[in-house]
C-alpha cells in the first residue's frame, strides 16, 4: 500500500493532490447552491460539528498497482431492485460512495459526486452509492433532493460493506473508493471528499 503523501516519487503526486484539493474547495463553495446551501445538516458538516456520524480524517490514499489487494467480491441490490455484482463492474473504473441520508458531510459532497458523475459518464466511468442505513423512501428522497442520477445499493444488511472490510471502517461515513478496471481498490478518500481531489484520483485510475 502506498500513501499518496508518502509514496516514492510522491512529491509530484502531493503537489497534484494539493492543487486539486484547492480547486475542489473553490468548486465546493460554488456548488453549494439551492437545496445543498439551505440544508441544515450540510451546514452542520461545514461547521465541523461532527454530529450523527463518525467523521473520517479526510485522508487520501492511493495504492500502487503492484501492491493492490485482489479484486473486491460482492453482490448487492440497488434500490430499483436490480441485482448487481462486482464482476459486472470489471472493465470500468468505478466510484463507490458509502453514505446515508442523515450524514451531514454526505449532504455536502452529494453535489460534487453528481457533478463528477456527469463529467465522467461519457468516458465509461461508473458511480454507485452504497447506503448503509436508510429505508428506500428515505434514500430516494435524498437522491431527489440532491438530483442524483447514479444509483445506490441498499446495503442495510451490510453485505457490500463487509466485502470492503479493511478499506471502509465501519461507521466512518462518508468513505469513497475508486476501483480500477480489474475491480481492485486504487484509492480511498476517508471522510468528506473534495471534488478536485477525487477527480485527480479517477483520472489517474482511468489512465492505467
Automatic annotation (TrEMBL):
Q: Name one GO molecular function term.
A: antioxidant activity
**Location of the protein in the cell:** Cell envelope
Coiled-coil stretches, from where to where? Answer: none
Sorted alphabetically, the Gene Ontology cellular component annotations on this record are: cell envelope
Q: Which residues form the signal peptide?
A: 1-36
Q: Where is the Thioredoxin domain?
A: 63-207
Q: Which InterPro entries does the protein's record reference?
A: AhpC/TSA, TAT_signal, Thioredoxin-like_sf, Thioredoxin_domain, Thioredoxin_ResA/DsbE_sf
Q: Which keywords annotate this record?
A: Cytochrome c-type biogenesis, Disulfide bond, Redox-active center, Signal, Signal-anchor, Transmembrane
User: Superkingdom of this entry's organism?
Assistant: Bacteria
UniProt cross-references to SUPFAM superfamilies, sorted A to Z:
Thioredoxin-like
The record's annotation in Gene3D superfamilies points to:
Glutaredoxin (3.40.30.10)
- Mention one GO biological process in which this protein takes part, according to its record: cytochrome complex assembly
Q: Report the principal subcellular site.
A: other
Q: What is the protein name given in its UniProt record?
A: TlpA family protein disulfide reductase
Q: Which organism is it from?
A: Sinomonas puerhi
Amino acid at each position: 500500500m502506498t500513501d499518496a503523501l508518502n509514496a516514492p516519487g510522491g512529491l509530484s503526486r502531493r503537489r497534484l493532490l494539493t492543487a486539486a484539493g484547492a480547486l475542489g474547495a473553490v468548486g465546493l463553495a460554488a456548488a453549494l447552491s439551492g437545496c445543498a446551501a439551505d440544508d441544515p445538516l450540510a451546514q452542520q458538516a461545514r461547521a465541523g460539528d461532527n454530529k450523527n456520524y463518525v467523521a473520517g480524517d479526510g485522508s487520501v490514499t492511493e495504492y500502487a498497482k503492484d501492491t493492490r489487494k485482489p479484486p473486491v467480491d460482492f453482490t448487492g441490490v440497488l434500490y430499483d431492485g436490480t441485482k448487481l455484482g462486482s464482476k459486472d463492474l470489471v472493465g470500468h473504473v468505478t466510484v463507490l460512495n458509502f453514505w446515508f441520508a442523515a450524514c451531514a458531510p454526505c449532504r455536502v459532497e452529494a453535489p460534487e459526486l453528481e457533478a463528477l458523475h456527469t463529467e465522467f459518464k461519457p468516458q465509461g466511468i461508473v458511480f454507485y452509492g452504497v447506503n448503509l442505513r436508510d429505508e428506500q423512501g428515505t434514500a430516494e428522497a435524498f437522491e431527489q433532493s440532491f438530483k442524483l442520477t447514479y444509483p445506490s445499493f441498499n446495503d442495510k444488511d451490510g453485505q457490500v460493506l463487509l466485502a470492503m472490510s479493511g478499506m471502509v471502517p465501519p461507521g466512518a461515513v462518508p468513505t469513497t473508493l475508486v476501483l480500477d478496471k480489474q475491480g481492485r481498490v486504487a484509492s480511498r478518500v476517508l471522510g468528506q471528499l473534495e471534488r478536485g481531489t477525487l477527480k485527480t484520483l479517477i483520472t489517474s485510475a482511468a489512465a492505467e
